[in-house]
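Recall the central idea of this unit: under ordinary conditions, the amino acid sequence of a chain determines the structure it adopts. In this exercise we apply that idea directly, starting from the sequence alone.
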Amino acid sequence: MKKAYVERALLPADRREGHPKPANIHDWLAATQATILFEATSLNVETGQPAVDHIRAALTHGAHAITANKGPIVHAYRELRDLAIARGKKFLFESTVMDGVPIFSLFDQLPAMHLQGFHGILNSTTNVILSEMENGLTLDAALKKAQDLGIAETDATHDIDGWDAAVKTAALITVLMGSNQDDVPIRLEEITREGIRDLTPEGVRNARRDGWPYKLVCRAKREGVGAHAKIKASVKPEKVLSSSPMAKIAGTSSYIHFETDIFPGLAITEENPGLYATAYGMLADFVRAVS
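Accordingly, the structure predicted from this sequence is:
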């Protein structure tokens, strides 16, 4: 479908002729009389833009906002959440972590439960690369194979250097471990971050042979109580016991293990999701928004 046709199709029939092309997101929202905005721009680690502005504009306009972009959660969650509440609209983001697996909505169904921490594997690109390095490929060759398979981005810096996993960790902490009193429960720069760039094929193979394979592991833990509580978080390569659940996560699969005050262990595994998994998460949010 050509872009020009899409732009015309989005306008009401009586507004398709004789009207200038919208100059910005505000004009577009007004011209389309939008009731829901789906936001799926690329991640900007530093600022979360332009996704933050898109979502803010949609909520201000009076539309629900649904995003698959983690940036707005890390950089502007409380502002956007409060704006959505004030406008009587929904701000939903289930596809930001583990595709469409219901992580955030799961905790909506667990009232009065407090999350103490979590650990898991949240970046599938590094998972695939490490698996290929265990088979003898260099990091660059493993990345090339992941790119050829359509798993890795052309520029996979965010994956290899741990940024994608760190932003997902920050998003989970912000939404699930914060409180209304917290300004920001953790900042991205406070997460100890180390990617897989310095791992060697020999080191990765030997770790697997010895029964302690490498995985890029995300961790968060609440330390202390009350006003003195702090959240410590990290993303880094770790050797994990081969019989542990994390060691069994291969390919594009993901895994997360929550520790709560009620359930000491509550785990979710996503087995090799298909191409439609992220889209399903946005569809599920759409159903929640209009129900």
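The first strand starts at residue 36 and ends at 39.
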